[in-house]
Amino acid sequence: MPQGDKRKYTDKQKRMARHIEESYEAGGVSEKEAERRAWATVNKETGGGRKPGGSGRGMSESEEHRRRSAAAKKGWETRRRSK
């Protein structure tokens, strides 16, 4: 899949990017820059493409939550022990 391909994004993520892009354009940002910023925002907020396949993306919500929770708990215990 070529870089920049949006097939792995859900319809909701695509709508989100479109609305963000429109907001940036209304604020005077160029069309190309607005699109770049919009997709960067979607990636940051949702973790990238949600559909299955490709570089580890497309985890279920519960699977992603479990993975992040485990990392947070491990970090908390590390901080607690070091005091």
Description:
There is one protein chain. The protein has two domains: 7-51; 59-83. Helices cover 65% and strands 0% of the residues. It has helices spanning 11-26, 31-46, 61-82. Helix 1 crosses helix 2. The N and C termini lie far apart (47 Å). The mean pLDDT is 81.
Keyphrases for this structure?
2 domains; mainly alpha; 83 residues
Please trace the helix and strand order, writing H or E for each element.
HHH
Number of strands: 0
- Count of helices? 3
Structurally, the number of domains stands at 2
Rg estimate, integer Å? 17 Å
Question: Can you give the mean pLDDT?
Answer: 81
Sheet of most strands:
none
Structural class: mainly alpha
Q: What is the 3D form?
A: elongated
N- to C-terminal distance: 47 Å
Strand content: under 5%
Fraction of residues in helix: 55-70%
Short summary:
The protein is mainly alpha-helical and 83 residues long. The chain has three helices and no strands. Helix 1 crosses helix 2.
